[in-house]
Write a structure and sequence with these properties.
Chain lengths: ~100, ~230
Amino acid sequence: MLSSNVFIASVCVMAASVLMTRFSGAMIMAKLPPTPWVERFLNGLSVSVIAALVASALAQGAASDAAAVAGALLVMWVKRDVVLSMAAGMAISALCHLAAPA
Amino acid sequence: MTANIAFTRAAVFEGARRLWAVAAFVALFGVAFGVAAVESGLAPLQATIMSAMVFSAMAQFAALELLQGPVAYLSLILVVASLSARHVIMSAALSSSVNQLPLTQRLLALSLLSDANFAETQTALRRGERDLGVLFGGGLVIWVSWVASTALGAYGGDLVGDPSVLGFGAVMLCFFAASVLGQLRLSQGLVWPVLAAVLSSVALLPVLSQGGNVIIGALIGGVTAAVRDAE
């Protein structure tokens, strides 16, 4: 077990690092002139970061993850309900695990 | 995204209400983290404090490795910062609205920024909503769930077991994918930036470390949006 001093120092270092990433984007943008180009860039950036996160995870994940996401997208397309969409993904995920446990 | 950005208590509750289901799923990861943290040698209280103060699943799981033996603080900073570097992008993406708030509200709104409440807030802003209370409220309900479930896993891991064996990791991906689809419905011009981000992040996987490809992919998506609409 870590000594409590080392633990406290480590957690403070981690918390400060994560908080800096949360604050810094908005702080940096406050210094830049809000041109139409920058606004369009941020508009595209905001949806792209989540899309890239999903694509990257799926590319490295199991086929069952891709099946779950495909099912969730289908439900989202038809029902327009995020919670329902997650429930569908969870059901598919569980079925895949029952069929072929890792 | 201009004018009249607010930060109200009503929107904080609304944000929490919208993300309760996500928070429930996050609890599965929280329990898994609590179990893993105790297995790696942290005391249950230490695991819980870490979740409360850091509030970043990827950074915390990675840190468990680094907290074995003597702690190299520089490595800790680099690993934690690079694993949550995508928050810089999210924070920048929210800048045109969040920077209209007074400083204390701005810091409060961003303090619990995570993937899920960012995705939800971005969809809300595209719908025309103007209250960043939803960002903080969404973060708060996830934070409560993350901390409580870490404690559950850390103190009662023997009883509850490790839920990650159930394979529910895909459920968060489902939420994010659904949120992207929701945003595409609201602004169809974003299809090309999203495609560019998806293709480039996957193509860069072999050459960039985990996370780096997401950031470059997001930047490419942003540039695609800026260049395309300028034509």
